[in-house]
Every structure is written in C-alpha cells, then in structure tokens.
Amino acid sequence: MKPITLQEVAAACNGALHGDPDIKITSIVTDSRQAKAGALFAAIKGARADGHRFIPMTVEQGAVCVLCEEAPTVDTPYILVDSTLVALKGVAEYYRSLFSIPFIGITGSVGKTSTKEFISAVLAQKYKVHKTAGNFNNELGVPLTLFGLEESHEVAVIEMGISGFGEMTRLSKMVRPDISVITNIGCCHLENLGDRDGVLKAKTEMFTNLNDNATIILCHDDDKLSTVTEYNGIKPIFYGTGKDEFRAESIVEKGLFGIDCTLIHHARMDDPAEDLRIEVTIPTMGRHNVLNALCAMAVGVQLGLTADQIKRGIESFENVGSRGRIVKTDRLTVIDDCYNANPTSTKAGLDTLSKLDGRKTAVLGDMKELGKDELALHKEVGAYAKSVGVDSLIAVGPLSKATAEGYGEGAVYFESVDDCIKKINDLLQTGTALVKASHSMHFERIVEAIKR
Description:
Helix content is 32%, strand content 21%. With 452 residues, the chain is an alpha/beta fold. The protein has 15 helices and 22 strands. The strands form 4 sheets. A 9-stranded mixed sheet has the order 9-10-8-11-12-13-14-15-16, with helices on both faces. A 6-stranded mixed sheet has the order 17-18-22-19-20-21, with helices on both faces. Strands 2-7-6-5-4 form a 5-stranded mixed sheet. The chain folds into 3 domains: 4-85, MurE/MurF, N-terminal domain (Udp-n-acetylmuramoylalanyl-d-glutamate--2,6- Diaminopimelate Ligase, Chain: A, domain 1, 3-Layer(aba) Sandwich); 99-315, Mur-like, catalytic domain (UDP-N-acetylmuramoyl-L-alanine:D-glutamate ligase, 3-Layer(aba) Sandwich); 325-451, Protein-Tyrosine Phosphatase, Chain A (Alpha-Beta Complex), CATH 3.90.190.20. A hairpin with a 5-residue loop joins strand 14 and strand 15.
C-alpha cells in the first residue's frame, strides 16, 4: 500500500481523529491476525464476531491506528466513525484517486472471475497487474482489494459482485472504471432484483461512475446486453460469436484439452484486410470461455497490447479454485465447478459435459437466491440436462428435488450432502461427473468424497 497519513484517512471517511495526524499507515486490514507494524486495523461488527474485541491484540502486533465505532480500551491512536464499513468505502475511494493507472471494472451474472483471470493474464504480458483475489468482490472485498494497490502497479483489474440495487453504484464509486466490462445478464439474485431486466438495471449502475473518457465492453451474445446502445454518448464495444467488432471463428472444442479458435478484431468495416486475427488454444474447456477470451482480447487491444502478447496471455490462463477444475481419479474424471451456481452457469456446465466422450453424470445441488420461481428454474435445469444428453443426474438439497423431477427417469435424489456422500461412490463408476451447486451447499465435500 502507498503510505498515507491518519489525517488523510480521517478526512476521507469524515472520522474524528484522536492521535497524531502525521502518522503514516502502510496497510489497512479487517482481520486482526493480519495486523502488523504500520497497519490500520478496521474494527467491524460482524454477525459472528465484533472486531472491537481484538483491538488490544492488533496494537500489540504493531498496528498504529484503529478505525472503530467505539473508543478503544487501550492507549492507541484511533479514528471514530458511525460505521466502520461505510468509512472503509470512503477511504478506498480516496485511495483509488491517488492512482492514474487504467482501472478495469468487471461484473456479470456468470464468468466474472474467469473473465478477470483472462484479462489479467493478457495484460500481464505488458503491465504489472493488480487484480481481485479470491471472492473479494463485494462492499468489503472491493475496498480491501483497492488497498492492495502498490506504487509499482501499472493496471488494476477489479471484480464487482452484487445481489441488490444500489450496490453497484457504491462499488463503482470506489473503483471509477476506465474500462467497464459486463459479461452477461443471467438469472441470479432474483429474490432482490426481480427478473433479468432488474439484473441488467443493477449491473449497468456501473456506468454512472465511469472515469473520464471511459470505454464500455459488453457481450453481444447476451440478449439483454445487446440492447445497450450507448450511455452518455459512449457507444459500447461488443464482442461475441456473431459479426461483432471482436468475434471468434473456426471454433473447435477438444474436450478436456481446451478449445482452438481464431479471435478477430474487425476494426474497419470497409477493409477486412485490416482485421487483427489471432489463432489461439484456450487452455480450458467450455465454449463460453471463447467469449471470455474475446473479452480479454478487447481489453488488451484498448490498452495497446500486440497480437503476440494477447495470444501468450490467453494461452497462459489458469482456472481459479473450484471453477471448472479437472480432478482425475482412478475410475473417472470430475469437473469441480462447485464454487457457485445459477441456472445460466449450470446450463453452460451441462453443455460442456454433454460434449465429452463416455458416460456423463451431473451432480447438481440447490441454486440459491432465485426468488419466487426457484422451483420452476430448478426443474428447468433438470429438463435441460436430459435434453442435452446427460446420462444420469444426482440431485442434492431441498430445492433440487425439482431438478430431479425435471430430469425424470434416471435421476437420483438426496435430501442432504451427508446422504449423498454415503452413496456417491456407488453411483459414480466411470466417465465424467460435473459437480455444481451454490457455494453454501458445500459441494466441495462431495468432490473430496469422490477423490477418496
């Protein structure tokens, strides 16, 4: 973190400073275990624990100041605020203003993290990149991500995730993107957003906080995003598998061995000879990753990368965590995609599974936050699995009973993950299994059981 003074911090969050205003901090943390010399510890009252309890420990570890809602019981400089979380966002907004490097803001219902990794891999061929780590994409994670910026960074790739209206406005106010990326508009968080039109409205709140001379990059294959023609005079750059400015041709899926294709930048309608054409092997399966690679190409072109740099970046992509991770056992292959799930991403996973050789099994769990139509959406996913040729389906969780019903004959249903684990290795013998559910279902336990 670029050092800033307590006076700067207090001014940024309208806090009452008690201590030397010239003291400088070199990190901001919310986890007391990460507090060290030069740190500012932000004490947050959470559902499980109150950070104020850990203030004495952080001071012992070298923290030079505390951002808090209650005066500390130990002698240390502190900044008193009404809400630590709100204050952190104010400080993050100020800290971001200290950097003049390009900021890429990424959101979407599906593929945010994968797209972030593609873009980061491409930009890393020319720049020192700072990117969102893990799932730090919410109203606490984004400030912490911004605080990780160092003076040496040359570009920032920031993922932003939301579940309700107004959140994207608050997130993008901190990030102020120079390049705004939206991957798609799917059926997620419908209990708060109502329908896909609501999702579109919530995601495009990002546009209200674009930096000067910003660029908007959208997926034209998405029927909702394709309706966005301009925002305050900014015309979007579209990527997709149609006749878009950034498009793909000669797509050949090679199963577990990735995808071969030609990525094209069609910059001049009057002269196709000026097209930038890049032949790549995308090192992960799933046709949707062609769109992710195209998005990375579009960002790379905006920031001056060469064709060779874009190709090297795309071909160096690696999946993060349980997002399409391939696990091989002595009897079958597992597609570990259990980080999260909604109808759009699950159907994409089923599409990928259906194109593989051998026996194909889908192990699917509850998809959360789908609102009043949740059972109908689960049933629709089950029917979709049957329609694309998945040989068998294992459904787990109260909502997933509807998934089993949608699939029909050949489906096996378990009420809980524990019940599934007891039988899973009797049901999976050969072929490939897709394992996917919302994160709160803890399907990583099923993956571990299969690996044993």
